[in-house]
Amino acid sequence: MLAAFAGGLLLNVMPCVFPILSLKAIHLARAGGDGHAARREALAYTAGVVLAVLALGAVMLALRAAGNEIGWAFQLQEPATVVLLLALVAAITANLAGMFEFTLPVRVEAGGGGAFMTGLLAAVAATPCTAPFMAAAMGAALLLPLAGALAIFAGLGLGLALPFLLLAYVPALRSRLPRPGTWMGRLQKILAIPMFLTALGLAWLLGQQRGVAGMTIGLGAALILALLLWWLGTRQHRGKGGGLVAGLAALALLAGAATALPSTAPAVAANSAASVAFAVGKLDALRAANKPVFLYFTADWCLTCKANEAAAIDREDVRAAFAKAGVTVMVGDWTSADPAITRFLESQGRSGVPLYLWYAPGKDAVVLPQLLTPATLTGLVR
Predict the structure, then answer these.
(1) What angle do CA 116, 117, 123 make, to 5 degrees?
(2) pTM above the 0.70 mark?
(3) Three-class secondary structure of residue 145 per DSSP
(4) What confidence tens digit (pLDDT) does each residue in 33-89 have?
(5) What domains can you pick out in the chain, each with its CATH number?
(6) Peptide bond preceding 105: is omega within 30 degrees of 0, i.e. cis?
(7) What 3-state DSSP class applies to 330?
(8) Best CA proximity match to 344, nearest among 303, 302, 284
């Protein structure tokens, strides 16, 4: 539970979550020193975050109980879900950029409904991100009774909500927030940039899952949605409505985009000479021959995985050290659902990626840290 809590806390600095947290901080600064209102908002926000994470965990556990071989972040293996997330992030980007305003009835906003919905949004926006510590915690959740598993998911949600709770319940922190001013509008527009980059990442993921056609459909839907929200914003500036029409049109657009996605993934290029695709039989054969093996599991939607690959794995000095020592690099790609990979991850006590394993000749696997450096990998063969 502590590992899940730490992973949730680290999610706050991910590009898809940080802007939402910053917006809540701006909201607190705008509200001034009203501690009662701040605490009410914080509790509503936390309730939204924890409820969303618990719901996602409960769905995963229910699907597994029904016989499905899935793990944490399973929803990102479905291209239709990625399209919905892409549209959501595009809408958040448009809102931060000032293209339109999302408003709730005054009674709902005053009762904490806005903060609750922001908490739900933060948890949903966090799904493309996987922070360190989370993989082991989510794997443990699969081995526990229902109450213990849900406690781990709740720990993840509490970690995600902690910064806002601290701002609300520690007056000394809240007093350090800048006073309201024109800087708020500028900062809000700046925060649109990481959300835009997250949208680009989701579009790229669609391309990995369903090729150029899938990426084009996703980007086209996001562009049309942005134009629709721009139209709504122009009406809002003139004091007119249109939210219901825009909402219905957006739902129809997303349903059409999800339906139009190609049903099959694009052909996968052959593995490079530097690595081989994961297969249990191949791994067993290499170990029987006393060959050193570096096995890692990744996914295109896993930011931690991609950061490790760029910073440590796909480096010339690491490849040279592995080649000199005769190390076989084996890659398990979990971008799309793969029951064989899911079963292997479970055998290692994990339900998600990344996972890095080192098999020295004649020895059992050593689990490597979730944050890698070139020195960590080259040190394996020294």
Answers:
(1) 95
(2) yes
(3) coil
(4) 577 888 888 899 999 999 999 998 898 889 888 888 777 777 888 899 999 989 988
(5) 2-260 (no CATH), 276-381 (3.40.30.10)
(6) no
(7) strand
(8) 284
